[in-house]
Specification:
11 strands; nine-stranded mixed beta sheet; alpha/beta
């Protein structure tokens, strides 16, 4: 909402200054009917000018508010086409807007299932935490995880068996993704190189669904994952996801597409990616 307020004020200011710049005497000389109306009430000319300019400012702010709302609610989706492939960027909730698609849910490399506030637990507010709350683990999922993690590959956290970042497990309409590596405290982290390698592995693993389903994926690495080489912004993460997908040897074939579902936030826009 803060972003919407900023855009509203920016549009209102832009409309008022642009109008005055091109028509210096506007609005005083362009609303004679209003001037005549105010004169009938014996209002001094000085106050009439102030009143008209005040009303003009209110009108510009109102127009700016309407424009901001239109942009906020109408420009919620962007389509990027390259060759025979399509990427769709949209604002929304991956659980609500991807009913007929496979949805990628990022886990850590050990496919941790415990929800809580401790460093080694899944945060309830994370996408993974929301998924586990909506679709609690069952015996089939735990068996799939046991079959997926490698007995010869171990995490730094408690030396638990883990999977390569980018490994996936299919569960109904969801694809569970082994993503962040865990440190000794159980906190998720990646280097920039590991992040890119995880994405490339994910794109390759999604190949078997390449012509059957749309694939919905969030902006991976935002909010929870720590980066050893310095934090990457959400905008940078989105750009890297798009660029690695374009470079990947395996892509989702038409008419299916990759859908990246984003949450609105400050200093982030689905329209800022340029290719």
């Amino acid at each position: 909402m803060i972003s919407l307020l900023k855009k509203w004020l920016a549009w209102g200011y832009a409309l008022s200054t642009a109008t005055i710049a091109f028509i210096p005497d506007f609005p005083v000389n362009n609303v004679k009917w209003l001037t005549d109306l105010l004169i009938q009430y014996n209002i001094p000319n000085t106050y009439i000018v102030i009143a008209i300019k005040f009303l003009f400012l209110i009108a510009c702010l109102l127009a700016g508010f309407i424009i901001s709302l239109l942009i906020y609610f109408c420009f919620t989706k962007r389509t990027i086409k390259f060759g025979h492939y399509t990427i769709e960027l949209l604002y929304g909730d991956i659980f609500k807007y991807c009913d007929k698609s496979l949805k990628v849910i990022p886990f850590d490399e050990c496919f941790t299932l415990d929800i809580g506030k401790s460093a080694h637990q899944i945060k309830p507010t994370s996408l993974c935490g929301q998924y586990l709350a909506k679709y609690p683990p069952d015996n089939d999922l735990m068996q799939n995880i046991s079959n997926t993690v490698h007995n010869n590959k171990f995490s730094q956290h408690n030396n638990n068996p883990c999977a390569e970042s980018g490994t996936i497990i299919e569960r109904d309409d969801f694809i569970l993704l082994a993503f962040a590596k865990l440190d000794y405290e159980g906190k998720g982290h990646l280097t920039n190189r590991e992040y890119i390698e995880s994405l490339m592995t994910l794109w390759d693993n999604l190949d078997k669904y390449s012509s059957q389903y749309n694939i919905c994926v969030p902006v991976l690495g935002s909010n929870i994952t720590r980066f050893d080489n310095g934090e990457l912004t959400k905008q940078q993460l989105l750009n890297i996801m798009i660029q690695t997908y374009m470079l990947a040897s395996h892509k989702i074939k038409s008419p299916s597409k990759l859908i990246i579902v984003c949450k609105r936030s400050e200093n982030f826009s689905i329209w800022d990616f340029k290719y």
